[in-house]
Design goal:
single chain; 5-stranded antiparallel sheet; 2 domains; DNA-binding; Beta-Lactamase; alpha+beta; Arc Repressor Mutant, subunit A
Amino acid sequence: MDGRTPSWPPSTALHAVHDLFVAGEVDATYLDSTSIRPVVAESWRRSLAKGVDPDVDGAESSDATLRLARMRDAHPLASALPVIRRLLVDDARDTGVVVAVTAADGTLLWVEGDPEALRRAESMNFVPGADWSERRVGTNAPGTALALDRELQIRSSEHFSRVAQRWSCTAAPVHDPGTGDLLGAIDLTGGVEVASAQALALVRATAVAVENHLALLRLTKPASAPVADPVGARFRVLGAGRPRWQVTDERGIRRSVSLTPRHADILVLLSQHPEGLSADHLAMMLDDKDLDVVTVRAEMSRLRRVIKPVVVGSRPYRLVEPVLSDVTQVFDELRSGRVAAALDVYPGALLPQSMSPAIARLRTELSTSLRTAVIATGDLAVLRRWLDLPEGRDDRDGWRLLHDGAGPGSVGQARARGHLAGLDLDLA
């Protein structure tokens, strides 16, 4: 993103590599030997790992569709629309270009521009209320710019979704000038000319102008009253990353803080016991030997300050309002029979460093349930996703199933045979 026009590989070559990659005929490392840009190759890998279907006819409607008008009214970028329209939309009316403004979660808030281009964009559901995050539709400029928090250009065949490969796009994230929080992104979508250095400079300049406009508003207008009730409170405790508490407020702004290991343990246990837990019971679940009730009460007091305004009730301790988590989401997807969707939100084991006996039990239950469901599908693509997880690397039975199910002489069978040989060596 140094202002120079990127060296784009030919579209035919990109199509060929894309077809091989999404069909599973080459593995993820093969992309490193091609002319595909590293930022695109990494996005393709993330898209495939999350189970994005490259043949779906565009984005799915976001959960925010029904509250789109409410989001627009409350979103801080609403006040900057005149700036965006003056710098981008007014000159896009007869150029085949669409201008989109997204929230931080990838929901399209406003889509304006050339009328004919707007009609064509509707065919892939590039419309207000649609979710164009990378986790939903794979590699695309606004979604990937939000995922990486950086300006980005994606040209035609670099898109992961085939229906989007008729378009090129350039996007830049926008941040709150006071807090640095990610507010959303500004995107230009159109023909190949949209992937030029000039388009990148224009979108970048518009994002800076919008942030300056918001900073000026903050200086000249009194601060608005804080939002009383959070929207989308949730916590993430799966995988090797640090546990996080996240809240998306009424304006669509995502806020996130790290959780201590003990606070993460407590939140998981409370979410699994909506009836509540006494201090004594919670102490035993956290540590069956050395934890006393006084320590539990002190930790609860600190936790309340971290997750405020979500309320933790007392006697017994309980979450007063529903709070989402990646743990409950995996269980919900499994109960509904959506195994691939469960894998989408399962990057790894539950709090792998936790020593809590109750967390260890839940960790085993979740992992075993997911593995069993994966095997039951008989779907080799789903099985490969499980085997790519840390827990799947030593799953000898799983690798044997992949070896026996893959076609003779296929890349999948060769990979499975090599992995099995490595496991045998470890056991020797």
